[in-house]
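Please, structure for the following, as tokens.
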Amino acid sequence: MTGLAEHVSKNLSGDQKAAFDQLSKNRNLEQVLSRTRRIAALLEGTNDRVDGLASTEAQELDLEICRLIIDQLQVDKADLNPVLHLAAWAARSDYHQALEIFTVNYDLLIETGLESLGVGYFDGFVGTLRARFRGDLVEASNDRDPLPASFVRLWKLHGSVHWTWDTDRPREVVRLGSATPVGLPAAIYPSDAKYDESRRVPFVVLQDRFRHALHRPESLVMIAGYSFGDQHLNEVLFEAARRRPRSEFVAYCFDAIPDELAELALTAPNFQVVSPREAILGGLRYDWNTPQDAPDDTWDDGAFQLGNFAQLARFLARSSPPHDELETRLGELLTAAAKSNV
């Protein structure tokens, strides 16, 4: 998120850059977008200014920030290997309950990986050109879930670069077949509308789904690529860990264990935390002792590697039962991705 904010600041100019940098002093990127959209809504039809912005200027800044986010998150700029490995694991998963993936990322990497390997998934929208959100299908419990368990559930809690507000029905969000075009704001997380229960926009429904999934008895929750920087999501996770002691939570940290996470894990034996140099397992915190003959993708120079999402995805892919046709397709895609990165 920090890198994305730096990209936006670097590519803005003039008054827009000055306004963005001022708003960014005590806010992350999502909070900046929330602020600009709130200013645009509150000042509409007036000549007033807040934080140096009039309503139209706030709207223009919103559009430019979205454009720069979308530009930076283009799939052709990314290393696809991790999401291809994740998709391979998802394709082989054969659980009683459907696999659910919750992400706060806006990009289309997970979708690209799943579609590249032909993995069926449902993201809450129905349709192709301007898919509409089906909250009733998202909220369906497993007892009456109309979709087969083999379909991965992909829930984008903070929205996506290919979601936008419907011009005909401004209270609704639609999913486009590609990234939101220039001139339309991407429907990503920051919007007061997500708290408006009467609108039931995706943000509200998806948050409910997240909470429901975490409170399902005897579940395994794996958390990777997340820095625990969203206090609201942290509260939902931590509450579920305390209330569901027979469920297992495993957090994979890329770097040092965040203090707040460590505090929870030390008092909740069902919340395991692993990082490169130490782990909290069963409420006990110790440094790692590197095992002999440790696999290269799990250990490197005494550091545990699964906190790196790329290594974790690779590990998951090779730990699942092989499937000949899937293995062939995965190999072809990984080879193509390697050539494109040369």
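The first helix runs from residue 2 to 11. The two ends are 26 Å apart (CA to CA).
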